[in-house]
Amino acid sequence: MLQDIQFAAYQGSNHLVQKASYALDRNLARPNKISVLITDACAARCTMCDIWKLQAHNELTIDEWRVTLDRLREWLGPFWLVISGGEPFQVRYMFDFLAHCRDIGIKTKMSSNGMFLTERNCDRVLEVGPDFLSLSIDTWRKDVHDHHRGVPLFDKCVDAIHNLRARDESIVLGVASIIMDETYPDMPETARWALDDLGVDRVLFQPLYPTFATDEGIDPQWFERNPHWPHDADACSDALETLRGMKAEGRAIWNPDEHLVAMQYYFRDPASHPRPDECMVRYNTMNIGPRGDVNFCYTVDTSVGNVRTVHPRDMWRSHLAKQVRDEMKDCKAPCLLNCYRGHSLRDQVAMFRFFLERQGA
Questions:
Q1: Considering only CA atoms, which of 119, 106, 165, 116 is closest in space to residue 136?
Q2: 261: buried, middle or exposed (CB in 10 Å: 19+, 13-18, 0-12)?
Q3: Among 52, 162, 209, 215, which one is least packed by beta carbons within 10 Å?
Q4: How far, in Å, CA of 277 to CA of 178, rounded?
Q5: How does pLDDT run across 121-142, given as a tens digit for each residue?
């Protein structure tokens, strides 16, 4: 319980300091969004993502990660660590990584395609985490999902969710879906199916976006050539409006309402959507890549150092970090990745209370 109170106090006070950092254009805060892209490896063959084409090489060892996690915990106190990839469960030491997080009081959220969630691995999830597991299911229609994932993953995700929920009601589970031409008509039904039939706690929708493994992001017209871009902007907007209505009714749609609105503009023209008044990532976010490189943003992805050679605290406060923050001020990228769209302090407090009630100390 004490650890959870410390977590809430840190999140609340640091949120206010981050606001002051933005207003004064001075780094006064510490990051509260720590994200780890733990591997490039992925055995899926998704048609809307090219990360699986990368080759894993020179990635941090578990011993190097333990040192980094210890340093982050000592510096930041209790915090949330968001883990993605590639496919995190493809990393052979993943459960050792999660166990270390739990041992030192770091809460973890992981995204997975479900490929490696065997019954045995589900046992390990219940033992060491993550505290919040989100499975990638793009639509409730199995054939469409498996076609775009390149390998049959739908049943593995569904079986894992049923397995985990049946054995431990305290585990927090979510479904994350990519909005593309083949899936946007299904969004409301996918949300209802995931919440009511699968019994997950949260549903999140992520717009189609240039992947980190391509150079699409530097081409402002990338979407015109992308075969998955929704071709009927009006119909896509209507589906998003239905999600807004479901959220207003209290359904657990995890996207902030302003994010759903922005996507209605985005799918008409990615450059046209309303941007947040405050892009806080330079004052609240630290992303760590599989080889230890650190940046604040995956769009302005200039590295501020590497955890193999520099303490994260020293990177955050460095002159190079200031230069990168200055570089980020004029960014006009269509930042609709959910990691860029922060939740309000009220939403953060609500999430903390939800986890406290569900999982306790």
A1: 116
A2: middle
A3: 215
A4: 25
A5: 999 999 999 999 999 999 999 9
User: Which residue intervals of 2-153 are DSSP H helices?
Assistant: 2-24, 62-76, 94-104, 119-128, 142-149
Q: How far apart are CA 353 and CA 349, in angstroms?
A: 6
Joined together, the tokens standing for residue 142 give 């199995």
Contact 342, 15 (CB under 8 A): no
3-state secondary structure 278-306: CCCHHHHEEEECCCCEEECCCCCCCCCEE
Question: pLDDT of 249-288, one tens digit each?
Answer: 999 999 989 889 989 999 998 877 666 555 778 888 999 9
Nearest alpha-carbon partner for 56 in 69, 38, 68: 38
- Extract the runs of DSSP E, i.e. beta strands, from the chain: 33-37, 80-84, 107-112, 132-136, 172-179, 202-207, 285-288, 293-295, 305-306
